[in-house]
Structures are given as structure tokens and as C-alpha cells.
Amino acid sequence: MPSSSEVEQAVGVSRAGRRSHPLLRYLGIRFGISVLLLWGVTVITFVLANLVPANPAAAALGEKAASDPKVVQAFNEAHGFDKPVVVQYFIYLGNLLRGNLGTSTQTHNPVTEDLGVAFPATIELALFVIVFSIIIGLGLGLIAALRHNRFSDQIIRVFSLIGISIPTFWLAVAFFFVFFYLLGWAPGTGRLSPAATAPPHVTGMYTVDSLLAGQWDTFGDALSHLILPGAVLTLYTVGLLVRFTRSGVLDVLSQDYVKAARAKGLPAHTVVFRYILRGSLLPILTIVGLAFGSLLSGTVLTEQVFNWGGIGQYAYKAATTLDLPAIMGVGLIVGVVYIAINFVIDVVYGFIDPRVRVR
């Protein structure tokens, strides 16, 4: 018969085993929630696409062909539009599990193939924008907070206000007109010049693929085409990051642990980067993730102005032509992007937030 102390010790070990690796349990829970959200995205995308009060046959075939009942019937049978909505959803879900997003009624290509061309273009633009936005936005926001209510703070606040206030579509048109049409400082539309040849396909991002292939001329041409649309989107994103960084840093500056660090006589850069910036990192990470997700989900008007050929422009064309498979494919990709970004942010939270990370 075990003694009471042995029983308590065994219970303690059992509880310790159950409580081990709390970070892994946290990540497992977040992953499970992400899977449920992904299923919800498929439902919402399908329902919204099928609630559109229009005739996809007329949009795809034209009015003349759509007036022939036999042609319409053949079209509906080919795309499964003649089946009940519930059956259509389960067919759609089964195809998704096999990696089949359907066939575009406009391009007549598999939607996965079209997205495989459009999405890398958006990723290339989004990475260009978010890298420069983080460097500039965090730097200016930190300076503004550390020089609170001084002249430099006022100038940076005005700059950030301008960045988030000007509509991006207007700014895109203005940049195109001034820097391409009037001054000729940057290329106009597209991802490459008409005379340039696309590099061998590896990632679909021309700058990366041209570097991998050692085609420096193509890399320079692709990079120059990134400048105008990248500058338009960077100005808005920087304005957003500056305001959140400044607000987050100001909240941390008054904390006792920052005052204690300064009282110890620690170097200024140590106090700023190890205590102040790290303490304000969580809200900054949140807004960086949301901004990056917004860029990855497609900036429709900017891509349309610069004929970028990304997922935003693809979504615009799909919506205007009532291409339901393409619309559902874009909706699914956008949902997956935001779910993935949020999951990554949750993972980072688990590592840097002591309230989540249990030693």
C-alpha cells in the first residue's frame, strides 16, 4: 500500500506530464482553430459565390449562345451548375481535397494554373513593399516616440497621416502620370519590358528567378518595374506602421522596467532595442501581419493601374466576367493567406510573450 507522500508524488508527476510542453499545446490548439477556420472559408466562399444574382452561362458564353437552351444545358452540366447547391458544395470540397479548384470559364485553364501565375506576382510585390515598410515604418515610429512632441515627431506624424489618408488608387494614377508619363524616370506597366524575356520559371517571381539564373539584365528590369507600384503601396503601409509603432513605444516608455533599465546606466541602444522595442513588439507584429496579409490578398486597383498581373487583377477580371470558379479560387486563397498569417503571428507570440511561453 503506497504511502500518502508517494501518492502525492505520483499525482504531481502525472500533472507535470500533462502540463509539459505548454507551448506545443498552445500551437496545437491554434492549428486546430486554423483548420476549422479554413473549412469555414470554403463554406463562405462557396455560398457567397452562388448567391450572386446573375447567370454564369450568359457571362461565359455571351448573350447569343446563352439564348440557346441546349447550349446552356450543356454548359451547366459541364460545370455542375445543374445539380443542387448542397451537392455542388460537396463536389467542390472533394475537388479541393484533390487540389482541384475547377476550370475558369473565361481562360479555360485550371484555376490552380491561373493562380500559379498570378499569386507569385503578388508575392513579389508584397515582399518588396513589406520589407521596406518595416525598415522605414519601424525606424520612423521609434524616432517619433523617442522624440515625443518635438519637431521631428510632428513631421513624422504628418508624413504618416498623409500616407494613410491618400487613396492608393489616386496615388497610383498620380505616380504613373508623373514618374512615367511626364518624367520617364520609371517603367510604366507590366512586370518586364516588352523586349525582355522572362527568366526560367522556378518561383514565378521574376527578380528571384533572374537571380537564380544569373540574368542580371532581367533582374534590373524586373526590379525597376517594382518601383512605382511598390512605392505607392509602401507609402500607405509605412504610414500605418509609423502610427502603431509610435503608439506602442510610447506605452512602453512609461513602464517601470524601462525606467529601471535606464537607472542601471545601461547603454541607450540596449535600452531601446532590448527593453523598449521588444516590449512594444506584439501590437507591431499584429499590424505587420495584417498589412502583409492585405498585400498578399491582392491590391486590386494598384495592380490594375500598373497592369501587374497579380491576384488582385485576376480577381477583378473574374468578378467582372462572373467567373465563379476563379472567384471561389481567389476567395479561398485570400482566406488561406489570412489564416496562415495569423497562425504565424500566434507562433511568434508563443515564443516572445512570457504569458504564453511557460518555462
TrEMBL record:
<keyword id="KW-1133">Transmembrane helix</keyword>
<feature type="transmembrane region" description="Helical">
    <location>
        <begin position="222"/>
        <end position="242"/>
    </location>
</feature>
<feature type="transmembrane region" description="Helical">
    <location>
        <begin position="281"/>
        <end position="306"/>
    </location>
</feature>
<feature type="transmembrane region" description="Helical">
    <location>
        <begin position="125"/>
        <end position="146"/>
    </location>
</feature>
<keyword id="KW-0812">Transmembrane</keyword>
<feature type="transmembrane region" description="Helical">
    <location>
        <begin position="326"/>
        <end position="352"/>
    </location>
</feature>
<dbReference type="InterPro" id="IPR035906">
    <property type="entry name" value="MetI-like_sf"/>
</dbReference>
<protein>
    <submittedName>
        <fullName>ABC transporter permease</fullName>
    </submittedName>
</protein>
<dbReference type="Pfam" id="PF00528">
    <property type="entry name" value="BPD_transp_1"/>
</dbReference>
<keyword id="KW-1003">Cell membrane</keyword>
<dbReference type="GO" id="GO:0005886">
    <property type="term" value="C:plasma membrane"/>
</dbReference>
<feature type="domain" description="ABC transmembrane type-1">
    <location>
        <begin position="119"/>
        <end position="349"/>
    </location>
</feature>
<feature type="transmembrane region" description="Helical">
    <location>
        <begin position="158"/>
        <end position="183"/>
    </location>
</feature>
<feature type="transmembrane region" description="Helical">
    <location>
        <begin position="27"/>
        <end position="49"/>
    </location>
</feature>
<dbReference type="InterPro" id="IPR000515">
    <property type="entry name" value="MetI-like"/>
</dbReference>
<dbReference type="Pfam" id="PF19300">
    <property type="entry name" value="BPD_transp_1_N"/>
</dbReference>
<dbReference type="GO" id="GO:0055085">
    <property type="term" value="P:transmembrane transport"/>
</dbReference>
<comment type="similarity">
    <text>Belongs to the binding-protein-dependent transport system permease family.</text>
</comment>
<keyword id="KW-0472">Membrane</keyword>
<dbReference type="InterPro" id="IPR045621">
    <property type="entry name" value="BPD_transp_1_N"/>
</dbReference>
<keyword id="KW-0813">Transport</keyword>
